Amino acid sequence: MQFMESRQCLQKPSNPFAEPKRCLNCSCRHIRTAHFVVSILLSIHNGGSRLGSLRNKAGSSKVQVKPKNLVKVEMPSATQEINVNETTGSLAMSVDSVINLDRGDPKVYEKFWLENGAAAAVEIPGWQKISYFSDLTNLCWFLEPDFAAEIRRLHRLVGNAVADHGRHIVVGTGSSQLFLASLFALSTAPEVAVACNGRPVPVVSSAPYFSYYPAATDLLKSGLFRWEGDACSFHAGSTPYIEVVCSPRNPDGSARTAIVKSCNGKLIHDLAYYWPQYTAITGAMDEDIMLFTVSKCTGHAGTRLGWALVKDAEVARRMTKFIEVNTIGVSKDSQYRAVRILKAVCDGYELEGAGESAKLFHFGRKVMARRWEKLREVLAANKVFGLMEFKKLHCEFMGKETLPLPAFAWLECGRDIEDCESFLRQKHKVLTRGGKDFGADGKHARVSMLGRDEDFDMFIQRLKAIRL
Amino acid sequence: MQFMESRQCLQKPSNPFAEPKRCLNCSCRHIRTAHFVVSILLSIHNGGSRLGSLRNKAGSSKVQVKPKNLVKVEMPSATQEINVNETTGSLAMSVDSVINLDRGDPKVYEKFWLENGAAAAVEIPGWQKISYFSDLTNLCWFLEPDFAAEIRRLHRLVGNAVADHGRHIVVGTGSSQLFLASLFALSTAPEVAVACNGRPVPVVSSAPYFSYYPAATDLLKSGLFRWEGDACSFHAGSTPYIEVVCSPRNPDGSARTAIVKSCNGKLIHDLAYYWPQYTAITGAMDEDIMLFTVSKCTGHAGTRLGWALVKDAEVARRMTKFIEVNTIGVSKDSQYRAVRILKAVCDGYELEGAGESAKLFHFGRKVMARRWEKLREVLAANKVFGLMEFKKLHCEFMGKETLPLPAFAWLECGRDIEDCESFLRQKHKVLTRGGKDFGADGKHARVSMLGRDEDFDMFIQRLKAIRL
């Protein structure tokens, strides 16, 4: 895999408000970000928590949004009523609606699956999938063999990772569980345990890093591992550490490699977004631990499925052990369904006669390209926010040069706005995730580009209306 | 709920080899068991690990069982070949087969669902259940409203727990995840955190306790909570602790209440087996945190779904937060399917014209009664093992007196056998879980009563053949 930037810490100062500064312990230039380990209860914001803080009245066709006290958010119009669909909790959009672009909920794919849903439909009779076990002959005994086969087929189709040649597959309840399983597996390796001598293994990632990493790492105050923050300011000594490499990176979409130069590091590659709709596939990744998730590949976040491709059998075995103790395996129903979903994706490219509309990654690129174009257009007009610029790279899957179209926009506020997230929430009723959750400064905010069309279009309307 | 024994530590010495001894810190009599916190990697045995240690050769219609190094088990016939179904990994039974009764894999229910499977069948089109969110208006935002409704309906039908009247439902990836979520929620309560002043909260349960509790509690060496072992030997001071009350208790099937007498305790009630097929429903439980699982209620272990009924909103909120960070919610596909499964169970009792064969709990009792009868018969004949005796109690659901028919048999070896688990495994190729994993002595072993008929019948044959 080639990378767009050889100097990994460089976050391109594409907007005029950011000045590049020198990294503390590596030779590259970057925008220095606050090393900020957020508290667990505040770092993971969800729409429920945020929306829950809106006070409202129950009406005839309106249901009450219960207050959530963990994340206290004051809204300008605290007594407003919110229209909520009773069964799904999704909001009916209006010019006054709160737009939730905080979590990367991939509803953008709904349209594709409405058209191609029949191919991915699954029927499960009552007597099927009763047992805990999927395959006693496999190291990961709760991995459905058919799911493993479709995962390998998909990677062969896309060419984004080596999944054959003896690589082990470990399935997880989303790649979130696999992230924790990886931390467990790496920190309990015999040589690591000896070298750390009872101290938790430091875990780092280059900032801005995915806000989930610190929250998940420190949730239970584990004695095995501990969040240490930005990889750029981490001083590797003679003891082991774990570096998480997220590429393309959540939140900013940049391609990354490991930052810390040391022979004591263990790497986790989070490749959730290394799919052709988001970025150029420049080669098949072949790292020790590579994490993927169905959510960001096909859009089925509710299925809660991820998979890890793992080189070392002992690491895969310990990851399996973690999931065995954490949740005694992974939903078979989800795996059963995911078989059909991944099959539909592959068939869309490999079956003769499959039309253009059956090609998921092409659908994804088309929608994302339109959205990014609209976003850049409106930001160029109002001059309030800065955005990274990306270069085209040759995508082996698409067979041409393609521009990165990240799943999130990493906005940077200019002018006098110090807190981008508050500004968008309080003034414009747009929920985003603030930069500090990612180890960056408050001038940044992450905005999901994966919502439904109506959410995205409304967001663009709100941005258009901003006049400072 | 009434209990069979008012003296909670009394494990009835129904076999002649066990002498009752006095409990260390409570006034009741019980068989003293070793306080043994097992290591994680050894405490959770699964069929895969055990079977993996059998060396074998790949043949034309046989697949190789890969060696698992975590649990080293030497078998008498180490070069034997094993017939393994390639897709499910289940073993074709023969007089020489290894019988896996270690995990409580509830395949006993397959027969019921083969007959009633149509009522519980579910079809999921490709476009459904894409979002992370199930219901933004609910505290547990990833709980499907239809699933919550069927859970409440089921509890009203069975009368085993109060699920209405403002009780919160938190869904988990099996009750295993909910156990961890409960530990997190209780140990991070503001008053507990202050009282513990940075020290982990001790977690106890009366021995023999479910082997999962110590393994899960100590897996990540959490700074929030720590396994402390047998509740009977726990000295409650002035600081908080958590007691897990499992009733009917896994592994021995006895009904339990809390052991430790102190006002500083927080309780988790694990009621996985408080269903009419296993025990008399003597009343609706109404505890602070009550855990249930689909696995042991309907048999769908592969669905990996559990639920907690929680009184306090803040506790439920913190449990939700744990699951949010651990796995970002729970499979919607599983919940969608479970709606149909629980509906089929309730319909089997509530719909006019539903036949006898549609009554799950009656099916369960019938099969379990036959198995327990066979087991007691063969054990009475060979006089090698002891078993607890149970008393009949009035079951409000069945409307008559019923005998407990636990999901596990808690065997105690007599004579000169010091290690019941090894004896059954090495001499008779029956995989069970040894007493030490449960904080008891090696003379005990837990045997699943929930396997398929052929496994159970073969087990009975092996027991019959034992001559010492």
What does this structure look like?
The structure is a homodimer of 468-residue chains. Chain A has 468 residues and is α/β, with parallel strands linked by helices. The first copy, chain A, folds into two domains: 21-111 and 358-465, Aspartate Aminotransferase, domain 1; 129-349, Aspartate Aminotransferase, domain 2, CATH 3.40.640.10. Helix content of chain A is 31%, strand content 15%. Chain A contains 13 helices and 18 strands. Chain A has helices at 40-43, 47-52, 110-120, 145-158, 174-187, 190-196, 212-218, 294-298, 313-327, 332-350, 360-382, 420-428, 453-465, and strands spanning 21-22, 29-30, 99-100, 122-124, 168-172, 201-205, 225-230, 241-246, 265-270, 289-293, 306-310, 385-386, 393-395, 400-402, 408-413, 430-431, 433-434, 444-448. Chain A has a seven-stranded mixed beta sheet. In chain A, strands 12-15-18-17 form a four-stranded antiparallel beta sheet, with helices on one face. In chain A, helix 11 (360-382) runs parallel beside helix 13 (453-465). The first copy, chain A, is globular and about 60 Å long. The two termini of chain A are 42 Å apart. In chain A, 58% of the residues are buried. Mean pLDDT of chain A is 83; it is low at 1-89. At the A-B interface, helix 2, helix 3, strand 4, helix 5 and helix 7 of A face helix 2, helix 3, strand 4, helix 5 and helix 7 of B.
